[in-house]
Write the structure tokens for this entry.
Amino acid sequence: MKFLNTLTRRNLLASALLAFASLAAQAAEIRVVTSGAFTEAYKKLVPIYEAASGHKIISAYGASIGNAPDSIPSRFARGEKFDLVILSEGGLEALMKDGKLVTGSRVDLAKSQIGVAVRKGTPKPDISTVEALKQTLLNAKSVAYSASASGTYLSTELFPKLGIAEQMKVTAKRIMSERVGAVVARGDAELGFQQVSELIYFKELDFVGTLPDAVQQTIFFSSALVQGSEQQEAAKHLVRFFTSPAVAELVRGTGLDPASK
């Protein structure tokens, strides 16, 4: 399997070299900040892109929304400089409205769903139906959910829709500046809710599944150019790589669905 993965990576890199070597003679530094759900795909794609293009990517990470010190809105509020942002559509549109991003530069990269995980070796609860999910939430002694887009959906829409908002104020906790999986892995919460792509890489967790379709929220994670950036052409080139057919399977393997067909 490791050998096959190596071959796949080599084939992917070869494809990338053919398609994206055109700007290698104009090597640039591209400053990118990305939110959690796209992080695993991003970390796999960036080294391939750097080798193919000659560009250098300077990376930062943070939640799409919220006021945590490392959240993307907080970074912009402090005046941190970037050429490209990748975050949930809600967070992106808020920054666009504030004039931080270039109008019309949004490109959808991937779609993500909300999943549930428990600590490895503990019983997997039933979330197969909306009613089962409700009972699982009510029975849990502690629940952890993201401070970003998925967590906002849970606390402001899903919990009220299930009629358990008051109970969740006691047992559920919004996790700031840390992945939900880490909280569940060390035993600080029974259940963890976050984007699938942020849960499946924790070896200490058992992935339970995604929310029932009737209450699932599919979130687009999108890129946009930053207003005032001096590397907009290089950033556009990077976005074309992220959305190219050559990398679609790699993106899918991180728990996301590529947005482009």
Summary: The longest strand covers residues 219-225. The chain has a mean pLDDT of 90.
